[in-house]
Amino acid sequence: MRNAYENVDYYRDELNKEGVTPEDIETVDDITKLPFTTKEDFRDEYPDGLFAVDDDEIIRIHASSGTTGKPKIVSYTEDDLEVWSEVVARSLAAAGVEAGDTVQNAYGYGLFTGGLGLHYGVEELGATVIPIGGGNTQRQVEMLEDLESDAIACTPSYALYLAETAQEMGVDIKELPLRAVIFGAEPCTDPMREEIEERLDVTGIDIYGLSEIIGPGVSNECYEAQDGLHIWEDRFFPEVIDPETGEPLPVGEEGELVLTTLSKEALPVLRYRTGDLTSLTYETCECGRTMVRMDNVTGRADDLVIVRGVNFYPSEIEDVVLEFDEVAPYYRIDLDRVDNLDTLEVTIEREPEFDGSVDDLRDRVMTRLQNVLSFTPDTLTIAEPGGIERTKVGKVKRVYDHR
Ligand code: DLL
């Protein structure tokens, strides 16, 4: 808190408004005196208003989707990167990975925290990382075979797609040495986990994290119990609140996860409202670890959409739609899962006056969407005027998730 108060104007102003100074924080319970940080604060302070150190101390930048066209920019000092590698190494150890093992890292490398986050954690543990990144599925299967990977890190939906691809290639994936799939970046339901474990003959391990706090490695399941994710609470302090009222909930009740970083230098975050719904348990775990556990995250308090591990808010699509005079201010997003891969269909509507080429309009809107979303919708449909159903009563529904 001292780091945030003394080095981030935003926090100093907010805390002064509340009349709290670092001296007022004496026990853990005092944390409720602090205001929440929200994704809107990241938006308002874009790009670096929440940074607590000078540029020359920052040695890495990552980014993730924001509520408008602008992403949330996050930064790390050398010490932050060491902490990150350590919590990911711990997560991998909890997943049963050991020094000497080989881990195929199929998370995307780049601004997304998944690739480099997992990468350095594997090295920190003393295991071998195969930095293959996302996609290239046939290649992934060949690597699993030829390099005898012990674990693969990827999204849960990709794990299933991988199993299917292996089957098509005539490879019996169950016969490979692969022991664990370390899945995260998107929710995984129980039936989906069972299917992963069954089809690949592995232990499925859930890894959780978010860019604003550090990236992957905020919490992780242990392979011994597979019963909740241990939060590395020496680094990240968890609370669960009622998303409507903001009030702390009794232990065990489901609500919105709120996280405070305890040792981040470049980007200290106080009481961040993650939007992720979960509950906490302080009961002893059979693995012997004493750190608090959170339940698997299967829902969100807001409308964040996760497609193939990439996040976006519907408002980002809305922003694009509103940029085009030829397009009416209505849109619809349909999410589905085909052959275990997420698909995203965007439908927009042309204005009645528009009499140009629909193909050309589609190309232009598509290009804009690709730039804003950093991936390509599978289909962009341009409906006739009135083609998108209007909401006449109650909340407008834009996103239809058929998964
Ligand atoms: O997705 C970090 C990550 C990478 C975690 C690789 C695990 C593996 P962001 O792009 O900032 O960071 O997205 C964070 O993704 O608030 C959740 O809504 C969702 N999410 C992440 N892990 C899980 C999980 C990375 N295990 C947002 N289960 C979070 C469910 C998850 N949702």
Automatic annotation (TrEMBL):
Domain AMP-dependent synthetase/ligase: 48-259
Alphabetized UniProt keyword annotations: Ligase, Nucleotide-binding
Domain AMP-dependent ligase C-terminal residue range list: 309-403
GO molecular function: nucleotide binding; phenylacetate-CoA ligase activity
Pfam families: AMP-binding (PF00501), AMP-binding_C_2 (PF14535)
The organism's place on the tree of life at top rank: Archaea
Database matches in InterPro entries: Adenylate-forming_Reductase, AMP-bd_C_sf, AMP-dep_Lig_C, AMP-dep_synth/lig_dom, ANL_N_sf, PA_CoA_ligase
GO BP terms in the entry: phenylacetate catabolic process
Pathway: Aromatic compound metabolism
PANTHER family: PHENYLACETATE-COENZYME A LIGASE
Assembly mode: Monomer.
Name of the featured protein: Phenylacetate--CoA ligase
